[in-house]
Specification:
This protein is of the alpha+beta class and about 270 residues long. The chain is built from 9 helices and 8 strands. Strands 1, 2, 3, 4, 5, 6, 7 and 8 form an 8-stranded mixed sheet that branches. It is globular, with a radius of gyration of 19 Å.
């Protein structure tokens, strides 16, 4: 678009601080949000309240990538499959531990749903980020971690982590030898994604222009190859309205997920 782009990381509260800053930004098309599944469709179903409406306080523009979550253990772990992990947890309830980013995060929700669906009891160990969680999985302090694929991918490729399953219904083209978790939990599906949104009340002509730019970008071979090398699948929404409808449906999907897992709401 002939513009310089400045990436401003706003960590904290599983991503809510960054989203909140965009919700309050000028609606001029120059401040955009790389929105995540966790903040805008998962966490709203796990918290009694949020500092913003995850959909209505933003102007959705387009989805940009999708990717699975992946369950990993240390390469030195005795567990070679999900079945091994489940069997060990049944032998010693509460001894098998998992890492997450805390209650309200997708790794927490998926792990708890996994436990409920297989009838096992797990020990939850929250972390402030992926790096310390992966470090402790590598060191054997925590048994397993379910995170979005790009996060542990380098350690998987370096054979320091062992991938046991992915959360998409089909195998990931990035990890074709890793079975989906749906082979253990029929019908299971959890897809991670990132999208672009603007502050509320951004003019339609700006939103449409940005949506078109994302479409064009998604069809560039170099862009496609770079994302796929990182375990991401480039996608785009045909229109801002389509992306908004998809967000509403995803939020409902995760709400059903939470109710099935019987996870209590956090304050």
């Amino acid at each position: 678009m002939g513009q310089s782009v400045v990436v401003e990381n706003r960590p904290g509260a599983t991503g809510q601080i960054g989203s909140q800053s965009v919700a309050r930004a000028p609606a001029d098309g120059y401040t955009l949000l790389l929105m995540s599944a966790t903040v805008h469709t998962v966490s709203p179903n796990l918290q009694k309240s949020m500092p913003f409406d995850p959909i209505d306080d933003f102007t959705p523009i387009s989805q940009v990538v999708s990717f699975p979550y992946v369950m990993v253990v240390s390469a030195a772990s005795p567990y070679k499959s999900v079945a091994d992990l489940v069997a060990a947890a049944r032998r010693e309830p509460g001894k098998i531990s998992y890492a997450s980013f805390g209650i309200g995060s997708a790794p927490y929700l998926i792990s708890e749903y996994f436990a409920m669906s297989t009838g096992i009891k797990l020990l939850h160990v929250p972390y402030k980020g992926a790096a310390p969680a992966i470090t402790d999985v590598l060191g054997g302090q925590v048994t397993f971690f379910i995170d979005s694929l790009p996060s542990p991918l380098a350690q998987i490729r370096g054979e320091r982590l062992r991938a046991l399953s992915v959360t998409t219904p089909q195998r990931s083209p990035t990890l074709p030898d890793v079975p989906p978790l749906s082979e253990t939990i029929p019908g299971f599906e959890a897809i991670a994604w990132l999208g672009i949104a603007a502050p509320p009340h951004t003019p339609a002509e700006i939103v449409d222009k940005l949506n078109q730019a994302i479409k064009e970008m998604s069809q560039e071979p170099e862009y496609d190859a770079k994302l796929r090398a990182a375990g991401l699948v480039p996608v785009f929404s045909q229109s801002p309205a389509q992306f908004r409808a998809w967000l509403v449906a995803q939020k409902q999907y995760w709400g059903d997920f939470v109710r099935k897992a019987r996870i209590p709401l956090a304050d």
